[in-house]
Amino acid sequence: MITVKRLKSLNEQELPKKRSHSSIRKLIPTLLFASLIGTYLDLFFTGVGLYTFPKRPFPELFSINIFFPLVGLPCLIILYLYIIRYLSKWKKAGLIMLLSLLMAVFERYSETLGFLDHTNSWKHIYSIFGYSLYFIVIDYFYRWSNKSYE
Question: The pTM is what?
Fold first, then answer.
């Protein structure tokens, strides 16, 4: 059997490796799921009257701020999924709690800016529990939808 070896004296550059787009394909179902869940939760809570969006794009068409569930949440989820895949279970739980607390703080800040208005009966602890559950569901969905890739 004859093998051909590359001469070490040649100063040729190696061909660049093709980048795989499988990591992007892995994210797309989860990002769509996260956007849909966020949109439907906003529609539900505004329909029930727990909060409103005084400043929102296209107020004559949408009762919610479509920017956050369609742009903000996917960006947050990309960052979340990138970080969480390297963490142990306890560190995942800590990250989920930290992100949930930050989202509740972000809600309070968006209220001061006039983008969100909660009713008097709303407690921001609801947001902490809700976002915790949301991040857990997104993590499970991501792992479930990507079993075929592993």
Answer: 0.79
